[in-house]
Amino acid sequence: MREEPLLETHGLSIGYRRPGNPVHTVAERIDVALKPGEFVCLLGPNGVGKSTLIQTITGMQAPLAGTVLLDGAPVASLSPRVLARHMSLVLTQRVPVGMMPVATLVALGRHPYTDWAGRLRKEDRDAVERAIADVGIEDLRNRPVCELSDGERQKVMIARALAQEPRIMVLDEATAFLDLPRRVELMNLLRKLAHTGRRAVLLSTHDLDLALRCADRLWLLPPGGPLLNGVPEDLVLCDAFGRTFAGTGVDFDKAAGAFAFASAHCGSVALRGDGVPGLWTSRALERVGYRVETGGRAEVCVEVIRDNGVVQWKIRGDGTQYRSLEDLIAGLRKCRAPSRTGTGRPAAAGGGRRPPARWGLETDTGKDGTPGGPLPPRGKERGRIGVPGKNRIRPPGTGNQHSAPIHILQKGGGITRRKP
User: Fold this and answer.
1) Nearest 10 degrees: CA dihedral of 383, 385, 389, 391?
2) Phi first, then psi: what are they for 8, rounded to 5°?
3) C-alpha atoms less than 13 angstroms from C-alpha of 382 in its C-beta half-sphere
4) What pLDDT score was predicted for residue 95?
5) Burial class, 239, CB count within 10 angstroms (exposed 0-12 / middle 13-18 / buried 19+)
6) Of the candidates 30, 82, 38, which has an alpha carbon nearest to the alpha carbon of residue 56?
7) For strand 39-43 and strand 200-204, is the pairing parallel, antiparallel, or unpaired?
8) Contact 395/360 with Cβ under 8 angstroms?
């Protein structure tokens, strides 16, 4: 049986009306829904209107057009007390509560249910205790909020929102200012609260990687709209992320599910190795600008060698074994160092410098691939000035102005010059 959405929007346009100024529309034609038990993440670049959308669907700001329905009723028609019993909101801004104990702050979530004096009944105190236990902050209940870390304070604010016993929880960048372990912990907590309590949880966030891993559904808001709605994997496969976050020097890697800097291309590397060492070797090579090929041909081949738990690396054709990825990258750069000719090719044996041609003579590339090799035999005469061909003699300062033919002879593996 298909569940009815707790919240839905129809033809919603969001933005601002300022007296004396034209209406500023941020996004329009937004049709989305929040269902019980869903953890939804709202993603988008800075300035596209994520916070404006949050404020509009929670009734803090009037829509420019369209409707927002909560259990089938327009949000604009509900009183603040009724709205607070169905929906809770956690914002990014810090609440200045001074020395207030954690338990007292959590108890403020019962405000929609108490009388004018704010007296807590037994059911109110039970709801506060459940919220503290669900978030896992029992050891913080008597501590002043001002002494808490950012991660602890955010948990307390979620417990306060949970004490409202809402069917919908909305959080605007709740993971901001938290370190990575605390962000992971908070995302797992929100997902658990959505699944176990049959609540709809909407989180606006910039943590793309965590959203892809944790969210049941994504709302993706590109600049100018329209809002894209779907499961994370579908939005990745249809290139929605690449279009939404398109920017100079940044590309979305669908294979990795993450953004990567568009580094200068250093060439291709065939990687022979698997497991964790192979994964991090590939990431290191891509970070410095190499294109990693897992099969087929490449300019260089790198092998990952594991011996008795010790990992080393080897460049095929190079007898050196590198003990760290830093050394491997330095070795690759040394192999690709340009020759003195400035051609960018690896230096050839014996210095590899192309000898200057006498009389400006341009010679072919030798069979061994090195510049300045002998001309391949083609009879005795190779060419003459004014005749189309790859080799011409240009005496210095004269360019192509000679009208008299000058023959090139190959004799004994060398090149001689004679006039007719």
Assistant:
1) 70
2) -150, 155
3) 22
4) 78
5) exposed
6) 30
7) parallel
8) yes
